[in-house]
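Sanity check

After download, print the first record. It should look like this:
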Amino acid sequence: MAEVHGQGGVKFQNWAKTYGSSPELYFQPTSVEEIREILDMARQRHKRVKVVGGGHSPSDIACTDDFMIQMEKMNRVLKVDKEKQQVTVEAGIFLSDLNVELNKHGLALANLGAISEVSAAGVIGTGTHNTGIKHGIIPTQVRALTLLTASGEILECSESINQDIFQAARLHLGCLGVVLTVTFQCVPQFHLHEVTFPSTLTEVLDHLDDHLKRSQYFRFLWFPHSENVSVIYQDPTTKPPLSSASWLWDYAVGYYLLEFLLWISTFMPTLVCWINRFFFWLLFSSRVENIAISYKIFNYECRFKQHVQDWAIPIEKTKEALLELKAALENNPKLVAHYPVEVRFARGDGVWLSPCFQRDSCYVNIIMYRPYGKNVPRLNYWLTYEGIMKKHGGRPHWAKAHSCTRKDFEKMYPAFPKFCSVREKLDPTGMFLNAYLEKVFY
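Expected structure tokens:
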């Protein structure tokens, strides 16, 4: 029998340092036997268990004061099936490592979120997404997975085995058990050509369909308190690599100067309108091109620690919702919004708790930076945004902080009762719950 030792006194903090907890015991298992052992111990001591990956979620979804399991030592690539173009990995592998491994085999994931320092089980568990109306959220790329339940049973799940559990576990919120392995559908390796160019909010919203047709991975950044927009097209290419990155502009100006000015704006909030316009003019007002291997274009730096919200609304509501947010900012000079508001798109799917369940969606991501770790007042902006998103049938990104409760989710998700019954069957005593999940299920 594996002998497991948990560490006491570990302080867990998410990447943005906006949420944290002090688990009683912190484990880094290297085998399924060890995880089973931890679950046994938790059962005997009536403790709850939380599994954590990269800790990037900007909410308390991964926090617990009981037992925490960090999966990064279970990070092997188990199988590459070149014929089916599929890869099976241990759940703790970071996508940053998987991208490199897949590349060696001439394969790639068709779509990735902005960050790759995240684990395989984590990205599917929270419904990570990128953009592209022909592409679903990351869980839609999952073909199979294995799950260790609270009782110590291992379940194989796919479209053909344990189908209901599979539909629930593709976006599992960490509450069904411990995901052990994930099988992803891949595509042949590809390069992306990224073109960024300036536009206006009016132009983009009036010609949204054209933009969506013109580029496979289209998104745009709107600079609040202005009409300014930076349009980003990303499309597969066979052209040779090309980089326009520059330390001076990307870091000296785009990071250090911006952080300093945002810090000053915490004393003079009216500066934010000016900062948003100035930085658009400085960094986003000309056309820029980059070409690289797909994952290097999909991933970009999140720069500062930040608070974020990200809701998915039906795609046909995009224009109405954004114009309403713009009007709210114009009509209330006290509302301050950092740039950018990032707007992305995703194909509808059948994943039970997907924000894109049964509808093509537009994700509207708002942000408030924390210059030098200082919190900037955001409550009014947050509530205004949430009100607009709810009014237009929005559903919040599971990894991000939101104020929704079970009542909201029952309205938002037709398959919510199905998910709940699978969860209650797999984890009748609530071993995998925490404060965040109690708001979701009770």
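If your output differs, re-run the checksum step. Summary of this record's structure: The first helix runs from residue 32 to 45.
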